[in-house]
Design brief:
Length: 187
């Protein structure tokens, strides 16, 4: 087999791989844009404003630090949703329940034989508040998960575009070398 034929064959394979990576990059970019748009379009109409000032001043330092970068902004992306879910809602839920989960409070409530006492009613209200908080946290953390997938797809798209460009360059160089190559490759 001649060196020129081998160079052309390898260059065609490289060109085909560059095309596959280009198509993959386009699909990943489309996925990334779709996900980011959907997360924004699901969060923005809720009109949630990230807490600021006195709303976060009373929180422990860890929670305050996580919320400060977003203070006062409308919630429109996954990172904001995660911060709100994990450092605002969860902090308030833990304060209300003294660190008990919905499941623990619900279990205590279910075990009560007389649910008409003031203590039982307070426990029932706490149970309902924790349920709503957990539900909202779950929805917000789903927005965070999808937002993260969108970011990863965007990064993967950039890597695919770079890979396509490198392979296309190598294919071009291979074709150029094939036009100059002489001789045969020993089998």
């Amino acid at each position: 087999m001649s060196r020129s034929i081998l160079d052309r064959l390898i260059s065609y394979v490289g060109l085909a791989l560059a095309l596959v990576l280009l198509v993959g990059g386009i699909l990943l970019t489309t996925a990334s844009n779709f996900i980011k748009t959907e997360v924004h379009d699901q969060l923005a109409p809720q009109k949630i404003t990230m807490p600021a000032g006195p709303a976060i001043e009373s929180l422990p330092a860890e929670h305050k630090a996580a919320l400060e970068p977003f203070a006062g902004q409308p919630m429109t992306n996954g990172a904001q949703a995660k911060a709100f879910a994990d450092h605002y809602i969860a902090a308030h839920m833990n304060a209300m329940s003294q660190g008990r989960t919905y499941e623990e409070v619900s279990g205590e409530y279910i075990k009560l034989t007389d649910k008409t006492t003031p203590e039982a009613q307070k426990l029932g209200e706490l149970r309902q508040s924790l349920f709503m908080g957990d539900t909202l946290r779950g929805m917000l953390l789903n927005a965070y998960a999808f937002g993260t997938m969108g970011n990863i797809a965007g990064i993967a798209a950039i890597v695919a575009y770079i890979g396509a460009a490198v392979l296309a360059l190598l294919a071009f160089l291979g074709f150029r070398h094939a036009s100059r190559a002489t001789g045969t490759i020993v089998s």
